[in-house]
Amino acid sequence: MGLDRVPFIVADTVSVDDPYTFDPNVIQLPFDGTPVDVLSVDVCVSHKTQIKLDTMAQIAVLGLTMIDQTFEVTYQIIRNDDCVSMISDEMDYDSVVDGRHMNFPNFPLVDKNPSLGMNTYHLRCTSVITPTVGFVFVGSRSLKATVFTL
Known about the structure:
This is DUF4489 domain-containing protein. This protein is mainly beta. The protein has strands at about 10-15, 25-30, 35-45, 50-60, 70-80, 80-95, 100-105, 110, 115-130, 135-150.
């Protein structure tokens, strides 16, 4: 007898109807560039394992109306306090009447070398460039770890 080698999934998901409302699940990213962990999952590794991570974050921006906007958000996948991977997403938008813009970046990754024992993965978001007199929010988001024992 041995361990069952079929993949298993660990996930954390938050769903928000409207990121521009006062929903307690909406996270406002700080203006000062302080990183915020928006989700986390724990995965226990006991054998040679690979972990496929899939992430998504709804980024909602509220800026001044009728002017062009530029903002930048970095996304990091953190394993046990170490950055495994990072992307930077700078967005430029033309002016719109209501000053609202949304983006849904997703960030897939295969962690081929997780540590034995408990691994905690975080999806970390940082507002690097804030829109002119505006706000950057994280609405709906998901972090899913699919664990494959080799």
